[in-house]
Amino acid sequence: MNDHLARLPRVEAPDGALRDAGLLRQQALTKPAGSLGRLEDLSLWACAVQGTCPPSPFARPRVVLLAGDHGIASVTSAYPPEVTAQMVRNFLSGGAAVNALAERAGAGVRVVDVSVDADPAYADDLDPAVARRRIRRGSGSIDHEDAMSADEAMAAFELGRALADEEIDAGADLLIGGDMGIGNTTPASALVGLLTGNDASKVTGYGTGIDDSRWMRKCAAIRDAMRRGRPAMGDPLRLMACIGGADLAAMAGLVLQASFRRTPVILDGTVSAACALVADRIDYRAKSWWLAGHRSTEPAQGLALARMDLEPVVDFRMRLGEGTGALIALPVVQAAITTLAQMATFDEAGVSNRP
Amino acid sequence: MNDHLARLPRVEAPDGALRDAGLLRQQALTKPAGSLGRLEDLSLWACAVQGTCPPSPFARPRVVLLAGDHGIASVTSAYPPEVTAQMVRNFLSGGAAVNALAERAGAGVRVVDVSVDADPAYADDLDPAVARRRIRRGSGSIDHEDAMSADEAMAAFELGRALADEEIDAGADLLIGGDMGIGNTTPASALVGLLTGNDASKVTGYGTGIDDSRWMRKCAAIRDAMRRGRPAMGDPLRLMACIGGADLAAMAGLVLQASFRRTPVILDGTVSAACALVADRIDYRAKSWWLAGHRSTEPAQGLALARMDLEPVVDFRMRLGEGTGALIALPVVQAAITTLAQMATFDEAGVSNRP
């Protein structure tokens, strides 16, 4: 691992004592022990990551939406690459799925152009700051060239960390890393293939909905990328430079920095899970701050989550990205917290517990 | 089937044309077609049951919590029967799981003592009306006696229908039938066993968390009840009188009347699913107004849902009842509706669709 990563702090564990306190409280509430199932687990996780019991619903959850283009998209995606920039404009106008779901869940959305392949002024009328911290214009076509230079990978990773810091310093108490980038499941799947020891054919999915012949081309591209990336497996940032993308490196930095800052993260889909897996190679303790929001239809996502022992909250056959899967899990987490925070105990309510 | 049931109106189907309109709109929204998975299905269901496109989040969802005791409880439950009345007080004080989850989901809660085995004044300090419409004090021990008389079964069924009417007339646009009653999974499981053609051993679960020896006694009681109930299978109200309970008959009336009134229902756990299955025998069209909120850990619940072809929204290993499983699905439904209602189309957002 390179010198920069070796100098990072260690991730500290969430508070186990508060988790235990949460469990004691759960067992005293007016319901049969265990009868709220997964909600009880989630409420204990909230105790541990918040360091309080009872926990409170997250007051300022934030989606950081990282957008970037990928040279491989023209080979592997059903959509034209210009859609990435168009969707950034859609996010800024509030018309995308992430906007609707974030509003419903009480989460804010911040959009950052990390590596979109468009004139930097393309969204100036909506938000002149959106492309101001761009690392590069598009990432390379990873089947035959590096996604970016080592310096760019470092800068993108540090951008992700800085974004996490900025959000947390502004009061965010839960982060969701959203992704937008035509073709971005290709580098994500290649990363998952390498880091979980699976063949390209096992990690290649249908993305936004490609047909079988394009699936075969995507699978071949992922196989080529995995071959190119294998020598870099021991160095997460070199791996990102080789077969990732600037937006993906930023996502890895974001979720890792959140764990340094003792701030929980709800992971989303394929890109989110793949980048979390890369960050897990930097510090395996980080994942105790992460919750898997949903199970995507993409095989790579499930393999990445399984490798990290993260059990998705819901399975709705979603495959959109943007943070949407995490945002559908957030109300479940908030509801789980509410039960532990608000319910009466057997003693308080004068209800007889089982003998 | 008895004369009373034969005189009921027919359930009308939800609006298929609006569902089709919803599908057209879904396909025009700025996301790959199908990428919101189950959320898309839920949004189309909302179009059909609301008769509008785009649909709106439900404005006045209501939980009607039906409480009742069961003579069989002392044999089959881990909790003492007095807990039913104590929990009614807890509901009225706002200390139960249903209160916390309903508040979080924006739903109101109404508590009705249908057949609690307690002095009718037990909750007068909290709500003197709660027991005013009680059908009887506890239901019979169904392993060896009828749950109630035919007249009481009819009265309980009509109480459930009246409660649905009252709520809908007061503006409710979605109903959840909650249950509270120590021992109530015993009659529910017996009903499901008979109506799905499964052995007692296949439908008997661990309820609130009984041990293996009590499970065997519960299974034997369910087998005895099923033997007693078999001759009544062709008449849903006679079946309820024989091996159901007054609270269960009311639940069947509630969910059926909602469908007469073109008002959607989110089903909850074992009691809810069993009563829906009885109502389904009265009018098989009713279930198009019902959504299965969650998959419970009780086997009878899953068998009842499968018989009605209802796919649960979430699976959180919950087994509490009270409407809690439906209330955890409600925010998902609301989020699904929000995507269809708020997202921009490709044309509106100036985003290129796939070629």
Short description:
The structure is a homodimer of 355-residue chains. Chain A is mainly alpha-helical.
Key traits:
mainly alpha, homodimer, Rossmann fold, 355 residues, 16 helices, 50% helix
Helix share, percent of chain A: 40-55%
Oligomeric state: homodimer
Described by the principal axes of the CA atoms, the overall outline of chain A is globular
Number of helices of chain A: 16
Mean pLDDT over the full residue set of chain A? 97
CATH class of chain A: Alpha Beta
Secondary-structure element pattern of chain A, one letter each: HHHEHHHEHEHHHHHEHEEHEHH
Question: What percentage of amino acids of chain A are in beta strands?
Answer: 5-15%
**Radius of gyration of chain A, in angstroms, nearest whole number:** 20 Å
The tally of strands of chain A reads 7
Q: Which structural category do the helix and sheet elements of chain A fall into?
A: mainly alpha
Number of domain modules of chain A: 1
Residue ranges of chain A: pLDDT <50 for 5 or more in a row? none
Assign the CATH architecture of chain A. 3-Layer(aba) Sandwich
Strands of the widest sheet of chain A, in order across it, are 2-1-3
